[in-house]
Amino acid sequence: MSAWLSLALDVILIGLVIMGLVQAGRLLHRLADLRQGRLDMERFVQEFSATVLRAELGIKGLKQAARESGDDLEKLIEKAGGIRDELQFITESADQIASRLSQSAQSAMRAEKPATPREEKPAEKAPEVRVESVTPIAKKPAAAGETKAGSRAEKELLQALEKLG
Fold first, then answer.
1. For helices 152-164 and 2-112, what crossing angle results, to 10°?
2. Is 30 helix (H, G, I), strand (E, B) or coil?
3. Is pLDDT of 163 > 90?
4. Cα angle 121, 126, 129; round to 5
5. Cα-based distances in Å from 132 to 33, 39, 50, 100, 161
6. Burial class (CB in 10 A: 0-12, 13-18, 19+), 94
7. Which residues, at least 6 apart from 10, have a Cβ–Cβ distance to it below 8 Å?
8. Tell me, what's the pLDDT at 22?
9. CA 111, CA 125: separation in Å to the nearest integer?
10. Distance CA 26, CA 158 (A)
11. 20: exposed, middle or buried (C-beta count within 10 Å: 0-12, 13-18, 19+)?
12. For position 18, what pLDDT does the model report?
């Protein structure tokens, strides 16, 4: 019995040693996978860091470009505001001149109307208005698709000149 007991203990010990060797093999395999994962993680972190640095440089470049284009736009807006003010002044001046011309033409037309027999007085005769120095305005031919519409002041001036002339 002692031979059998010794043999059974030896078999149990051999089984335990084999199980320990299998477990050690699995552990070594898992450690190798862990080392490979660690190397992959280090490579990923380095690539990610490089990507973050490139992104930061790109953002700085975009901010600089936005500042420059914003400055350019600000300058253009200032110029446009000045031009708008000048055009508004020119338009107002042209409207005033046109209204003065229109009033002058109307008063000249009233002066040229023949008086009715009741209103005519020999001592009061309206002065004669002669417009000889007015030269016709040279008009360029309208381009294809271009209309002949002008500003209100131009239309009134043309109508007054046609009535006079």
1. 20
2. helix
3. no
4. 160
5. 107, 100, 84, 19, 12
6. middle
7. none
8. 96
9. 9
10. 104
11. exposed
12. 96
Q: What is the C-alpha to C-alpha distance for residues 6 and 14, in angstroms, rounded to an integer?
A: 12
Tens of pLDDT, residues 20-76: 999 999 999 999 999 999 999 999 999 999 999 999 999 999 999 888 888 888 888
Which of 34-48, 78-92, 115-129, 131-145: highest mean pLDDT? 34-48
CB-based burial of residue 61 (10 Å sphere; 0-12 exposed, 13-18 middle, 19+ buried)? exposed
Q: What is the pLDDT of residue 144?
A: 42
**Quick check: 98 and 153 in contact, CB under 8 A?**
yes
**Which tokens hold the place of 128?**
């004669």
| DSSP annotation string for 88-111 | HHHHHHHHHHHHHHHHHHHHHHHH
With tokens 């040229």, the residue in question is: 112
Sign of CA dihedral 6, 7, 12, 18: positive
